[in-house]
Design a protein that fits this description.
The complex is a heterodimer.
Chain A (H helix, E strand, L loop, with lengths): L7 E4 L2 E4 L9 E4 L2 H8 L3 H8 L9 E11 L1 E10 L4 E2 L11 E10 H4 L3 H11 L13 H10 L1 H6 L5 H5 L17 H7 L12 E10 L2 H6 L7 E8 L2 H18 L1 H5 L9 E2 L3 H36 L4 E8 L1 E10 L2 E10 L2 E2 L18 E4 L7 E5 L2 H6 L3 E2 L9 H7 L2 H10 L3 E4 L2 H6 L8 H10 L4 E13 L1
Helix pairs in contact in A: 4-12, 5-12, 8-10, 10-12
Chain B lengths: L2 E4 L5 E7 L2 H16 L9 E9 L2 H19 L2 E11 L4 E10 L13 E2 L5 E5 L2 E9 L1
Helix pairs in contact in B: 1-2
Chain lengths: 477, 139
């Protein structure tokens, strides 16, 4: 730690760093004592404090239970800035704009899948390239613009997936405010071979089964009725295109607002103030990159169906939901009894809206929004549901995954990819990857305990437990 | 030592060294490439020129390293070595480099991709007539 940070205990799962220095609001941390200790080991808390200085920030700078060190914002950082008197910060969204998770349910049972698991993983990797592999789907520059403007709607128009997939996606798979003209040629060039690819890092496609249902009514609303039901989870984002959009605007904002740069404790906290041209341009470009990501996951869902069909014949795969966890959204929230229009930055955090919000698909509106929370390789993943309480405390946000505790560097020194795969196989979990080193980096021991992250979310009331999923096989990006 | 990797929770952090700023920049490009592939195995077949202009040293390092990620995504270019690298100081900093590598990426074993260069914990220091650069990459 570079500095001593004062932390007040609010409850067993909520902590507060009081306002000091140029912080406009306090910083609230949603964590168990154990998770908080881990956050103290890196720059998470310092970054959470830094976020509190942003203009127009309401209530708190917040850190979700899986928080860890990021750039500008911590990963797991949430901040709501006034729409008229705030700003937009690329560092509050992340390089991988609309990195997110898509979950498909099937009518298969784990007994149907187990005998063919290896064949299915091979086929999935063929249909959904990972690592540095190029896309099977060729698009010309004109089509990329269409994807940027229309998102997953472009995919349906071109024969990938269906309307029901769109209905069960955050933003229905398309942010209407997107404008492809605000995306640089360089970004387009980076994305042209990457539609329907997983990429690398912590991205994956996992075959899972329903291990435990905690809340039958809500699970039923999400189309999940029995244990053993097979699910497919896809975790990826906007690939090189989105990374370039973030970088382009981060640098452009530095050039446009040198006075703001001077006052920053961290260059990646640069922002464009509300009302500026740069604010409008970046927001439109960010929406376009988010659309690219939604199209990407949508088409990967379609490719998953093709792979399943090839190996297992007819099976019905339907989208449960698709959530973004690196994004800024214009939302209305009740703040101290007044409805305010805010720009909520969620960086490594999932939107977790409670019941009745108009943004939730109609068939889920009564129970609340599904939250998809992937674990690390070989561990459980979870489906949670948004709550009214979360709308009050976190602007309807919760964790996005397990969150790392060990560096990739240390993981490579500690684990061997071959052994990680063998150990998982004895537990009945098959791994298909493109790099042994990549597998070692993602060993589950390098992550926080996802069960603990989920427990904090549940206990803090910001995302309630619905279903636990266990892995059968992973295609690792 | 040209460069070394250091622990960082989520990403890759490295330090690169050089007798000159130019040498430290070249070694940073090698450190970045080693995350993706073994650059010693990449054939020296394609030559490219990089020319950039940035407002300060850190921005120059950010912009320079980003070129390698961009070249990889857009032209499948993998670096073998840096033939020449010059930095001119003035009101703005200008960098010109001639780099050599290969665009037939399928021939090589690649490990992981890099999303972006970041400013996080970035350092550029001159200690005992030796330059040290520190960079965190977002994977």
């Amino acid at each position: 730690m570079e500095e001593e940070i004062e932390i007040k205990k609010i409850s067993d799962v909520v902590w507060e760093i009081p306002k000091s220095g140029n912080m406009k609001v306090p910083c609230r941390i949603f964590a168990s004592e154990n998770l908080l200790e881990k956050m103290k080991q890196d720059r998470t808390l310092i970054q959470g404090k830094n976020v509190a200085f942003l203009p127009g920030i309401y209530k708190y700078s917040m850190i979700m239970p899986d928080g860890h060190s990021g750039y500008g914002f911590p990963i797991g950082g949430v901040a709501a800035l006034d729409y008229e008197n705030g700003g937009i910060s690329p560092g509050g969204i992340g390089y991988d704009i609309n990195c997110g998770v898509r979950l498909l349910r099937s009518d298969l049972t784990k007994e149907d899948v187990k005998p063919k698991i290896k064949e299915l993983l091979d086929k999935l990797l063929e249909y959904c390239p990972a690592g540095l592999g190029s896309s099977n789907i060729k698009v010309d520059p004109e089509q990329i613009n269409d994807i940027l403007d229309k998102g997953a709607k472009w995919a349906v128009e071109n024969g990938y997936g269906n309307e029901d997939d769109l209905k069960h996606s955050e933003e229905y798979g398309c942010m209407e405010q997107a404008d492809s003209k605000q995306v640089s040629d360089l970004a387009r060039k980076r994305g042209k071979k990457q539609i329907a690819t997983l990429g690398s890092g912590n991205h994956f496609l996992e075959i899972q089964y329903v291990d435990k249902i905690f809340d039958e009514k809500t699970a039923k609303a999400f189309g999940i009725e029995k244990e053993g039901q097979v699910m497919f989870m896809i975790h990826c984002g906007s690939r090189g295109l989105g990374h370039q959009v973030c970088s382009d605007y981060l640098r452009e904002m530095e050039h446009t607002f040198p006075e703001i740069v001077k006052g920053l404790s961290d260059r990646e906290l640069i922002y464009a103030p509300s009302g500026s041209d740069m604010f409008k341009k970046y927001f439109k470009a960010m929406c376009a990159a988010a659309n690219f990501a939604w199209c990407n996951r949508h088409v990967l869902g379609h490719q998953t169906r093709l792979a399943v069909k090839d190996v297992l014949g007819g099976a019905k795969l339907e989208t449960v939901y698709d959530v973004a966890h690196n994004i800024a959204k214009v939302e209305e929230h009740d703040i101290d009894g007044e409805i305010k229009k805010v720009l909520v930055h969620r960086k490594g955090a999932t939107r977790a809206f409670g019941p009745k919000r108009k943004e939730i698909p109609e068939d889920y509106r009564e129970v609340g929004q599904p939250i998809i929370l992937p674990g690390s390789m070989g561990t459980s993943s979870y489906i949670l549901v948004g709550t009214d309480e979360g709308m009050e405390t976190t602007f309807g946000s919760t964790a996005h995954g397990a969150g790392r505790v060990m560096s990739r560097h240390e993981a490579i020194k500690t684990f061997r990819g071959e052994k990680v795969v063998k150990d998982l196989e004895t537990k009945g979990i098959h791994v298909k990857g493109v790099s042994w080193k990549g597998i070692a980096e993602e060993a589950s021991e390098a992550y926080k305990d996802v069960d603990e992250v989920v427990k904090v979310s549940h206990d803090a009331g910001i995302g309630k437990l619905v279903v636990r999923l266990k892995p059968l096989g992973v295609v690792k990006g | 030592m040209k460069y070394e990797y250091l622990p960082h929770t989520a990403d890759v952090k490295f330090k690169s060294y050089g007798k000159t700023l130019e040498e430290a920049f070249s070694n940073a490009a090698l450190a970045l490439t080693e995350v993706i592939t073994d650059y010693n195995k990449v054939e020296a077949k394609v030559e490219k020129t990089i020319e950039i202009e940035s407002e300060d040293e850190k921005a120059l390092l950010y912009d320079f390293l980003e070129q390698f990620i961009v070249l990889l995504d857009s032209e499948s270019f993998l670096l073998n070595s840096i033939k020449e690298l010059n930095i001119k100081k003035g009101k703005k900093l200008k960098l010109k480099a001639i780099i050599i590598g290969d665009t037939e990426i399928d021939k090589y074993k690649t490990e992981t991709h890099i999303k972006a260069v970041t400013y996080q914990e970035m350092e550029i220091k001159k200690e005992n007539s030796k330059y040290m650069l520190q960079v965190v990459l977002d994977l």
